[in-house]
Write a structure and sequence with these properties.
The protein contains ten helices and 14 strands. The chain is α/β, with parallel strands linked by helices. The protein folds into three domains: about 1-160, 3-Layer(aba) Sandwich (Rossmann fold), CATH 3.40.50; about 175-255, Helix Hairpins; about 260-400, 2-Layer Sandwich (Heat Shock Protein 90). The chain has a seven-stranded mixed sheet. Strands 9-11-12-14-13 form a five-stranded mixed sheet, with helices on one face. The two termini are about 30 Å apart. Mean pLDDT is about 80; it is low at about 405.
Length: about 400
C-alpha cells in the first residue's frame, strides 16, 4: 500500500540534523527527507487544521526541528513532543509514538508513522511501537508504518507501507550468515597460529641452512641460486605473516559493531566546554554517515588526549581544530592547535611511553596511548613537523565499508 502526501492527514516524522544544527553536517535544512516530506504535504494548500504532524528529534537536530515547525506552521499543525535524550534512546522514541497514538485528536484516525528520516535506531523504535500498538491496543487509532523508497523520482514523495515481518526475517538471515562467517573466521584465527608454526619450522631450517651455505666457498652460479632461494624464503615468510594478520583483523572486525563518528564528536564538544570553558574547539569537514570499526571509548580517548595536550599547551585559552576529510578507504583527521608547537629536539621521542616535555605536567603516556590505539585499528598518526602555527597531528583511520547511515 502506498500513501500519497495529500492522504497523510496525520503523520509522525523523525528529524535528522542539518547544517542549521552544526556546520559539519552534509545536508542543508531543505535537503533532509523530513523537509521534503513536509513540503510535499504543504503543496496541497489545505488549511493547517487539516494536517497534523508530530516531529521526533534529539538535541542534535533541535534547531532544524524549530525551523521546520516555523516554516510550515501556516499549512500544518504540529503536535508538541519533547526532544529525545540521544538518537539511540529507543525506549523514549517508542513511548512518544504510543503517546501520539493515544492522543484523543487521533481517535478513529489513521496515523502515518514514517521511519525514513533520523537514525536506524529511531526507525527501529518507531517500527516496534507500531507493531506493539497493533497487537495490544484496543483504541480506534490505526498506525501505519511507512518508508519513502530511494528509487523515487527526485521531487516525488510517496509513503510506502513497511512490512516489518519481512524486514525482521531479512535481518535474522543476515545475522545467521554473519554468525556462521564469524565461526569460520574464529576457527581460522585459532588454526592460523598452528599452521604458521608448522610452516615456519621448516622455513627456519631453510634460513639456517642458507646462512651456513653462504659461509662456504662456492662459485658465482651457486651464489646466484642461493640469492633466489633466499628471496623465495622471505616471500613465503611474508605470506604466512599476512595470512595471520588478515584472519585476525577480519575476525575482530566482524565482532565489533561500527560506531558513529558524529556521536563521538558531540561528546567531545560537551567535555571540552566543561573542562576548558575558554578553549575554542572547531570541527570542520563532513562526518555525516561516517562509520568506523573501533570502540567508541577508544576513539573518544584518542581525541580527548590530543585535546588535553592542546589545552595544556595554550593554558586552556587557545584554539583546537578537528578537520575531517573522508577518503576512499580511510578518514584523514587533522588535529591542530595554536600553541607554541613541539620543539624539534623532542619530536623523535614524542610517542614513546613516559616521555614528557620540559614544562609538561602530564604522565607522559597520553601520546603513547593515542598512537597505540590508532595503530591497533590499522591506522597511522604522525606529527606534521612543517606546521608553523602550533602543533598538527595527521591521523588516518580505516572506514567501515559496509556502513553509510545518517548521523
Amino acid at each position: 500500500m502506498a500513501v500519497h502526501p495529500h492522504e497523510a492527514k496525520r503523520i509522525i516524522l523523525s528529524v535528522s540534523p542539518s547544517r542549521l544544527d552544526a556546520p559539519w553536517h552534509k545536508a542543508g535544512h531543505d535537503e533532509i527527507i523530513t523537509f521534503k516530506s513536509l513540503a510535499a504535504i504543504a503543496q496541497q494548500k489545505i488549511h493547517a487544521e487539516s494536517y497534523y504532524c508530530w516531529l521526533i528529534y534529539t538535541e542534535a537536530s533541535e534547531k532544524t526541528t524549530q525551523y521546520l515547525r516555523q516554516h510550515f506552521s501556516t499549512c500544518i499543525s504540529f503536535g508538541d513532543l519533547p526532544g529525545v535524550n540521544g538518537a539511540e534512546n529507543a525506549e523514549e522514541i517508542f513511548g512518544l509514538v504510543l503517546q501520539v497514538a493515544a492522543d484523543p485528536i487521533n481517535t478513529g484516525q489513521t496515523v502515518i508513522c514514517d521511519c525514513t528520516g533520523g537514525t536506524k535506531s529511531m526507525s527501529i523504535a518507531m517500527a516496534l511501537a507500531c507493531n506493539y500498538h497493533a497487537l495490544t491496543s484496543e483504541s480506534q487509532t490505526k498506525l501505519i508504518l511507512t518508508y519513502i523508497p530511494r528509487d523515487r523520482d527526485h521531487d516525488e514523495i510517496l509513503f510506502r507501507e513497511f512490512d516489518l515481518s519481512r524486514v525482521v526475517a531479512e535481518e535474522q538471515r543476515k545475522y545467521v550468515d554473519q554468525q556462521e562467517r564469524m565461526g569460520r573466521l574464529r576457527y581460522l584465527a585459532r588454526f592460523s597460529p598452528i599452521l604458521a608454526h608448522e610452516i615456519k619450522n621448516p622455513l627456519n631450517l631453510i634460513g639456517t641452512a642458507l646462512y651456513l651455505l653462504r659461509d662456504e666457498a662456492c662459485g658465482d652460479n651457486a651464489k646466484m641460486q642461493l640469492d633466489k632461494i633466499e628471496k623465495a624464503f622471505k616471500e613465503i615468510d611474508k605470506i604466512v605473516a599476512g595470512i595471520q594478520q588478515t584472519v585476525r583483523q577480519e575476525a575482530d572486525a566482524l565482532s565489533l559493531p561500527p560506531i558513529r563518528l558524529a556521536e563521538v564528536v558531540r561528546r567531545l564538544q560537551g567535555r571540552t566546554e566543561k573542562l576548558y570553558p575558554n578553549l575554542f574547539l572547531n570541527v570542520a569537514g563532513n562526518i555525516s554517515g561516517t562509520q568506523l570499526r573501533i570502540t567508541e571509548e577508544k576513539l573518544y580517548s584518542i581525541f580527548a588526549n590530543l585535546i588535553d595536550n592542546a589545552a595544556h599547551a595554550t593554558a586552556g585559552a587557545g584554539a583546537v581544530s578537528l578537520n575531517f576529510e573522508k577518503r576512499e578507504n580511510s578518514l584523514r583527521i587533522l588535529v591542530e592547535d595554536n600553541g607554541p608547537g613541539i620543539p624539534t629536539e623532542v619530536q623523535a621521542n614524542l610517542f614513546k611511553p613516559l616521555h614528557r616535555g620540559k614544562n609538561s605536567s602530564g604522565t607522559g603516556m597520553g601520546l603513547s596511548i593515542v598512537r597505540t590505539f590508532v595503530v591497533e585499528e590499522g591506522g597511522s598518526i604522525v606529527l606534521d613537523s612543517t606546521y608553523a602555527q602550533g602543533a598538527r597531528f595527521l591521523i588516518d583511520l580505516p572506514i567501515d565499508k559496509n556502513g553509510e547511515v545518517q548521523s
